[in-house]
Amino acid sequence: MIIGIDATSVMGHSGIEVYARELIRGISALQLDDVKLVLLGRRRRGNQLTEFFGDQVEVRPVIPHDLMLGEHLRPISRILQNIIWKSNTRDVDIVHMPGNALWRLPSNKYVVTIHDVFPLMP
User: Fold this and answer.
1) CA of 120: how far to CAs of 10, 102, 108, in Å?
2) Of the candidates 7, 4, 21, 1, which has an alpha carbon nearest to the alpha carbon of residue 87?
3) How many domains does the chain have?
4) Distance CA 57, CA 37 (A)
5) Phi then psi for 97, rounded to 5 degrees?
6) Facing residues of 111 across strands?
7) Secondary structure (3-state) at 4
């Protein structure tokens, strides 16, 4: 089984980033022969992800920056990001998106972790 993880927000210090990072570490520490972890991250962070997680995971630094075409063309950048995302997750069985953002629409099965719902509920 190939498990993809949206790694666009795993290297910071917020709760979501720590959660995602530790989830990746925990799954990779299980050393399951029939499970392969694939991290899908931003192009500029590919080396950082590889250095941090080592050979425990496959890193695919494929997602360009939101502002690659400038602020005014951000909607087009998002469309391009979705196309790139889908083309790089075709072989993935399930994708986990730990960071609340569902702007990428996976073409396969996915799990989204919802954090901090309490601000929505008075």
Assistant:
1) 24, 17, 29
2) 4
3) 1
4) 5
5) -115, 95
6) 96
7) strand
SS3 10: coil
CA distance 103 to 27: 25
Residues 90 and 106: their CA atoms lie apart, in Å, by 9
Element counts in the chain: helices (H) and strands (E): 3, 5
Given this model, what pLDDT does residue 103 score? 60
pLDDT tens digits along 25-50: 999 889 888 999 999 888 777 888 88
pTM: 0.81
* 8 part of a folded domain: yes
Measure CA 79 to chain center.
Answer: 17
Tokens of 3: 């498990």
Three-class SS state of 36? strand
Q: How many residues does the chain have?
A: 122
- For residue 99, what pLDDT is reported? 74
Residue 19 included in any domain: yes
Cα 96 to Cα 38: distance, rounded to the nearest angstrom: 10
CB atoms within 10 A of CB 43: 14
Domain that holds residue 38: 2-116
Q: Would 122 be classed as within a structural domain?
A: no
